[in-house]
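Phage tail assembly chaperone structure dump, as promised
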Amino acid sequence: MAFGLGVLRLAPADFWTMTPRELQAAAEGVYGRLVGPPTRAALDALMRAHPDGSHTDG
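structure tokens r here:
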């Protein structure tokens, strides 16, 4: 969040609608290649921590 909102100065709506690949591409545009994609285990952990439908809009 700090990178997207602070460094890239994205509007919150733009930040939250970005895909991970888009955010990575933006980071690489600023800093060059940082890291590879997340491992399957890391992705599974994120999906468990933040399941679809767990937020409310508006």
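The chain has one domain: 2-49.
lmk if u need the other ones
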